[in-house]
Amino acid sequence: MQTIALILPHAVVYYSGLILALAILGGGALLLALRTAQGREIHSALLFLLLSLLLGLPLSRLVHWYCNSAQYASFASAMTDYSSGGYAPLGAALGMLLSALLLRLFGAVRDLPALLDCAAPAAALSMGIGRLASLFTSANRSKFTLEGEFFRRLPFMTSAVTPSGGVEWRIATFAWESISCFVLCLVLLALFRPLRSQKRFRASWRDGNVFFLFLALYAAFTVMLDSTRYDALYLRSNGFVSLTQICCVAGLLFSTVVCSVRSVMANGLRPWHFVLWLLWAAGAGLAGYMEYYVQRHAAEFLFAYAVMEGALLLLFAIVCLLCRSTRSRAGGGGAERRGPPAGEAGSSCHDEGASPAEAVPSPEEEIPSGGEAEPPLEDSVPSLEDILSEYAEGS
Questions:
Q1: Which of 43, 218, 277, 314 has the fewest CB atoms nearer than 10 Å to its CB?
Q2: 0.85 exceeded by pTM
């Protein structure tokens, strides 16, 4: 059941549709603004945005149809008639990732990690706005009820009418997902390198880190919140964990592996790496057990979800530490950026008739506003192996 915003002569406009349109506009505007702040070419971001819309819309409907096929008359009607039915944000996210890979494979994007750093905060903002559309539908509630007058006064609670005519108070899951996405957007913007004024941070923060932290923190919020949904999207062969939870865990694992490889390449294999990996395995196991526990002891869901969220935030903190332990090869601070010895530098200056200050450029002159020198245009179309190796070797 959706709330009508406008009734036109030949159409009906719902609040949910208006909010979804606002979400797309807001996310697209932020993507272009961040790409401009990087000092990179804007046309690649425009191509990425257009292709994401073309692929994200049908993929989001495809995922929703797969998990809720009973809501549609047929597959053909689900994919052709968009006047009714729902959309899965997971499908839109898959459309964005597929668009980025296609643009990189065809050579339209030369700096994929940097582009994904722009897309991460934009995706968080878009999902945060889009989830507000659920406030005008009947799907914005969890499967757990809260008794007592105190809980009814809490913000973002919603009421549901029982078959007997009573009223139950439930957590407004989608509203809390919206809040978490807005918080995620602010965190990612705070970590976005071109927006940071500290030279040390700009020098040591590598392209791709913001995207990996997006995968980790979004999973930390969504795995727990999606567990509370009464209409979660499940695989047809699995009713234990939802499809959204599976994809979030896969993204969290991917970000951990890539950041670990980056950290080992920058620092060598250190004992603290093993400590972080053991803590990650323990946190992942605890979060998984809490999902099993809450399905067996539904009355203790507050305790189970508190422990689960603590374990998931631990995993995010480990990814943060792994990202922070890497260095940007174009960012300075390493031995390769210190230049020649003082004697050689001095003789070079005297030979060329320049002062040391003129011979050795400052970090601000070496590094453009985007944080790294623009990579040269490649002569050949990159392979899939080249794309995946960018995350391990840096952009």
A1: 43
A2: no
